[in-house]
Amino acid sequence: MDDVLWKAADKLRGAVDAAQYKDFVLGLVFLKYVSDSSGEGPFVVPDGARWTDLAGASGDLGARIDAAMDAVMRANPSLDGALPKIFGGVDQRRLGELAGLIGEVRFGGKAARDVLGEVYEYFLEKFARAEGKRGGEFYTPPSVVRLLVEILEPFKGRVYDPCCGSGGMFVQAEKFVLSHRGRLDDIAVYGQEANERTWRLAKMNLAVHGLSGDLHRADTFYSDAHPGLRADYVLANPPFNMSDWYRDTGDPRWRYGVPPAGNANFAWLQHIISKLGPGGRAGVVMANGSLSSRQSGEGAIRAALVEAGLVSCVVALPDRLFRSTPIPACLWFFDRSAGGGPVLFIDARDMGTMADRTERVLTEDDLARIAGTYRSWRGSGYSDVPGFCRSADLAEIRSHDHVLTPGRYVGTARGDQDDEPAAARVERLTKELYAHFEESARLDQVVRTELGRLDG
Predict the structure, then answer these.
(1) Dist. CA 44–CA 30, nearest whole Å
(2) What CA–CA distance (Å, rounded) separates 306 from 310?
């Protein structure tokens, strides 16, 4: 079904503005879903707004679709402002062909929501790939989201994302809860997104997955939509190295230092920390520069975060995970209950596998190893693995001037360590070489013997 719908979507490509393309397609798919499942699903579809009403009427199809979107939003307050009303005035022939193809898909039955959820996730990934760098505005690679969720384990409580994009963090948190025999209402979702189109995607995405969320459209730094929130979990992938952001030097969120005007990395980190309730934990995707930069006071802010005992873990990610940016990335983890203990450093730069020529993904084994290391470190059974992970105390971090690059701490794998004395290494390699010579001579004799038998 996914491929059929994606090919159908291509019919509208070129007929609408590229920035609105995904709004057209996903809006139509969502309208078809609520129409098919209105008798058994959570949404009300008024008369005149059903798919059959649209398909059977004459006149301007785009205007009818806009009217149907408006009617569905009025009948379902949770969808207020979420559905696109942008279909009037587009190429009616192509729109009709697209609507006809989508009309052939059936979303009825108990599995309708699961099917639609899969379609949405497939489409969001395809759009992110098609848009390239601009796709980073709304989409975080699934394996990165999975890693954040597997480490934080948001079983129950308030989940927050201050730059929620299309809502992928929330959807993955929901999947985690359900996979561990929880219920949808075990988590409460709070989010904020500045981009209007992206905010609409998030609203639709949550509705598709049966999640009711408190999502606001506003600039997080200019207008904090959840000023009193104390979250149990924060999952976020803020824009890397954002230089154009609203900065109030007297903002109480800058408890650990005023972030520089030219880079919002430490503004995002401090905003996220300000949202953590007692015992709250956060996982944040950041540019690698945040681990070592000393420009404009960033080094002092990083030191203050470490000294406050907030940083629990840092993970260096492999390259090419993000199709939207070539900037190397890392994960910061914060823990309000850490109490100033050691910090776990994980160097995962050599992990992952190439999904195609340009994009790397973390495999199930990779995710299990990284998340399992973190869980054992928080619980029991942990031990350092040279070249991969190390638990470093505050004194050691201070000795590195609070630079948090994992490679400084984990060292190299034992097999890579060149600590064998030269004489011993020569003796060992000589023995190995003579052993290979002897094996080669033995095989040579076996071959000659077998050839002799064939000649006889």
Answers:
(1) 13
(2) 6
